[in-house]
Amino acid sequence: MRTQTLCYSIGWDVGGWLCSRNPRSRDALVILDASGRLLGTPWRGNLSQSIQRANCTHEWLAALFELCCLPLPTTPLAVTLAIDTPLGFSDALVRLLNRQGGASQADLQNGDAYLYRYTERYLNGRGLRPLSAVKDMIGSQASKGMHTVACFAPQLLDCGVWSDGVMLTAIEAYPAACRNSAIMDRLLSPFRNTAQEDSEECWLPELGHEDLQDALRCALVGHLFTNHPESLAAPPAEVSPNEGWIWAPEDGLL
């Protein structure tokens, strides 16, 4: 008899490498099952040591499950890890750093070719203001996320999709892009006590910090990516796969 593959989505709101020193912003994890139900206990802290200690994808996932008070199943797994941090830099910036030439005057536009990837410029044109890893000083978070993907999901399957080829798929999410999405509102409703989103009391107690709420939104983006990919805005053909892509609900974009 064929063993059933268990599917999970994990949301990771990324803190900096030294986020233990910052009580306001730390790593946060939320794990959902294939039906989008919360599993274990959402976790908030610093993942830096867990990243450094894991020698393979299996050990990395085991660490995430353990932090959320869950055992890693022994049956085959399919895990989607949705990460809230830039997982790439613009091609123009990479060429500049490698001394392969600067951006053309037509592309420069106040440094945008270096500061923003295509996906960030795309969301900017759809009513959002995603952060730039360069301009907004979140390089610590970005390098942490990119290092993790390089170690545990090194295969680029498609633009904005990485994998270890066995059990882990990694994508980039952006919680703020979910706030105007009716689809996301429906998925979030079981995790709220009231409809007043900005109230601290509206969330289940285990989701009482903003970092955890963002991790939940990421996990739900991962859930949509696995089960309803048509609900997410997909990268146009002209996007460089090396830059990556922010997966966001299409119905939440202008």
Task: Please render the helix and strand layout as text.
Blueprint: E1 6-13, E2 27-32, E3 38-45, H1 48-53, H2 57-67, E4 77-84, H3 91-97, H4 105-108, H5 112-115, H6 118-124, H7 139-152, E5 155-158, E6 161-163, E7 168-173, H8 182-188, H9 210-227, E8 246-247
Parallel strand pairs: 1-4, 4-7, 7-8
Antiparallel strand pairs: 1-2, 2-3, 5-6, 6-7
What does this entry look like structurally?
This is DUF429 domain-containing protein. The protein has 254 residues and is an alpha/beta fold. The chain has one domain (6-88, 132-252). The protein has helices at residues 48-53, 57-67, 91-97, 105-108, 112-115, 118-124, 139-152, 182-188, 210-227; strands at 6-13, 27-32, 38-45, 77-84, 155-158, 161-163, 168-173, 246-247. Strands 1, 2, 3, 4, 5, 6, 7 and 8 form an eight-stranded mixed sheet that branches. The longest helix has 18 residues, at 210-227. The radius of gyration is 18 Å and the shape is globular.
Helical amount among residues, as a percent range? 25-40%
Q: How would you characterize the largest beta sheet?
A: 8 strands, mixed
Number of strands: 8
The pLDDT mean sits at 94
Summarize the structure.
The protein is α/β, with parallel strands linked by helices. It has one domain (6-88, 132-252). The chain has helices at 48-53, 57-67, 91-97, 105-108, 112-115, 118-124, 139-152, 182-188, 210-227, and strands at 6-13, 27-32, 38-45, 77-84, 155-158, 161-163, 168-173, 246-247.
